[in-house]
Write a structure and sequence with these properties.
two-stranded antiparallel ribbon; 6 strands; 9 helices; four-stranded parallel beta sheet; alpha/beta; 45% helix
Amino acid sequence: MSTVLVVDGADVCRAPITEFTLRSGFDQAWLADVDVISRGLEAEPDRTMCDVAADRIGFTSSSIGFYGAHRSEKLTREDVAGASLVLTAERDQRSAVIRLVPGTQARVFTWKEARVLATILTERVVNRTADAPADLDDLARLMHASRGSIPVIEPPVRTAAFHWRKQPATDPLSIPEGHDETRATHKTAVDESRSTATALAGLFVDLANAERHERRTDPARVDWWRRGA
């Protein structure tokens, strides 16, 4: 079974809510056989989800079961080595994962970066300039290949006119946890993690379904695989 590894800092909010959202969405084609796990780079073992993330996943039987079962786990080399695709909350965490297991950069992305690259790949599959991924390893390979086709996305930097220090800026590829700020800021981080994961799951499902539909429908339509035969 292939594995998606989701990584944040503590494995109590952003990573588990992303894990739950991806698990819930991976129900079609080869994605149904993909496992999703979450880990934290600085996780304290056996902590439960934070209340903000727990509230956001809802109160269905599956979400209650997930919340009750989840316990934080610290990231290991074995976790990274065994994953076909690694998704991190922040750019610095992406770098930390690659330092932990050198040579893995082709399958490690922030989850906002993965959303951009999966969107590009979707357009290429629609336009028949790229093949649909046959499995999770293939998906990671194709997303990595798309990295070179777009400008490098770097955090915006602004400097004050008469001051040498760089001013704070938001990294467009990262979702900081916000635990050290206000509760509203932390809710925003959790909500953004979930919405990004929801979009990712949809893109991955469309790509997984694309191969079996591409010969039966009109490739000129952006949403061709959604419509079926």
